[in-house]
Design brief:
The chain is an alpha+beta fold. It is built from 11 helices and 17 strands. It comes from Streptomyces haneummycinicus.
């Protein structure tokens, strides 16, 4: 948290590595995990640490986090220097305190408390920590890193520690993460912009085709209208829906956070169900034709649409890509050519509610917060540790926690596990 900002990007890769290596080494130094090392790969450094249990039959748990942060400056809205930690009203303000150095540090404190409370000299599980350095720039090398070091990173369960909770007095743990697929669609009509007075009404207009394409994306119930899009979707269980409803959700406050003036979405689902556990299709951008001041009476030669799809457990990004690829040309009139470019996709993840690792986390959370054992549900965030694009997840709500007077879901993740 107290360090010079490291701006990640393609330029000067060697220059950015030295401060990150020093920062990464500090992440596990305080509790002296006996085996610590950097993992060699083409990107910014990742730090790895492990502490084997004395019990050879113990399960292996891998904890994921990241040590890099977004660049920050006073003009971004900070009331203090971002990289000089300050405590105000019982809260620590510093770059990375909540994303993600604080979470990584909590795990080291947890290990320390575990050993002190039990009198053990090693953890009850074979513990591994993987702390990467490129999460905030999309983790472009993370897949290669995991594949290169797969033998070392093998685990029975993975805990992603880049997260938060519903509120201070409503302990939650997340059980799933939505995936993401993105594409850009370019439409081409005339070989150049042409005069609408001479040709309008007689040739296809790519801007009109883009508008019709976007309008056809959803049906009257706000369901995605692409055939095959919902194939394999894991539906919410009755118990999950009950647990969603138990959360102290203030929709008006949520709307204020969203800077929006009303809710809208797939019929038959609540707001939390829509943003946490249902697949979506969103228009991220649309353009075409003359955009300058005044008028220019043309039929444009091209238009563009950017789409993103949030995916839930059971959906295959490749299948969604094929479905979108088949759907787009079926919406276009003769005379409109198209190109589709897909970005790397992120797979969704969901841990079963009866998974032993999840039950262990839930029991521990309940004991730590002095509540009954937490009961799982699902929740919503930012980026999973594979391709690092925006995503959202399912969370678990404690049974009978103390309730705040007004609750709003976190803008980032709650903790989730996936084996």
């Amino acid at each position: 948290m107290a360090a010079h900002p490291v701006r990640l990007g393609p330029a000067r890769p060697r220059a950015r590595r030295a401060p990150q290596r020093r920062l990464a080494r500090r992440e596990t130094r305080g509790d002296r995990l006996p085996h610590r090392r950097g993992l060699a790969h083409p990107g910014a450094p990742a730090v790895y640490a492990e502490w084997p249990s004395a019990d050879p039959e113990a399960p292996t748990v891998l904890v994921y986090g990241h040590h890099d942060v977004q660049p920050a400056a006073r003009e971004d809205g900070w009331d203090s220097e971002p990289f000089a930690p300050v405590v105000r009203d019982g809260r620590l303000y510093a770059r990375g305190a909540a994303d993600d150095k604080g979470q990584v540090f909590f795990h080291t404190l947890g290990v320390r408390a575990h050993l002190a409370a039990t009198g053990r000299t090693t953890p009850a599980v074979h513990l591994k920590l993987l702390i990467e350095g490129e999460e905030e720039s999309g983790s472009p090398h993370f897949r290669a890193l995991v594949e290169q070091h797969a033998d070392r990173l093998t685990a029975d369960s993975v805990i992603v520690s880049d997260t938060g909770m519903w509120s201070e007095d409503t302990p939650t743990v997340c059980t799933g993460m939505r995936g993401l697929a993105e594409c850009e669609i370019r439409l081409y009509g005339p070989d150049q912009d042409i005069h609408s007075g001479s040709f309008g009404g007689a040739v296809p207009n790519p801007a009109t085709a883009a508008a019709r394409l976007v309008a056809a994306l959803h049906d009257e119930h706000a369901r995605v209208a692409i055939p095959g899009f919902y194939d394999g979707v894991v539906e919410l269980t009755d118990r999950e829906r009950e647990l969603f409803a138990e959360l102290p959700f203030d929709e008006e406050r949520w709307l204020r956070t969203a800077k929006s003036h009303g809710t809208q979405g797939e019929a038959g689902y609540s707001t939390l169900e829509r943003v946490w556990a249902r697949p979506t299709a969103e228009v991220n951008g649309i353009g075409g034709g003359y955009q300058g001041p005044g008028s220019k009476t043309i039929i444009p030669s091209s238009a563009m649409v950017k789409l993103s799809f949030r995916l839930v457990a059971g959906q295959d990004p490749e299948h969604v890509r094929e479905a979108v690829g088949d759907w787009v040309p079926a919406q276009l009139p003769d005379g409109i050519r198209h190109e589709i470019t897909f970005s790397p996709a992120t797979r969704p993840c969901l841990t079963p509610l009866d998974h032993p690792a999840l039950r262990s986390v839930v029991r521990a959370m309940g004991r730590a917060f002095g509540t009954p054992s937490a009961s799982p549900a699902r929740a919503a965030p930012d980026r999973p540790p594979t391709s690092r694009t925006c995503s959202a997840h399912r969370c678990c709500s404690s049974a009978s926690p103390s309730r705040p007077t007004a609750g709003t879901p976190p803008t980032r993740r709650s903790t989730w596990t996936c084996s």
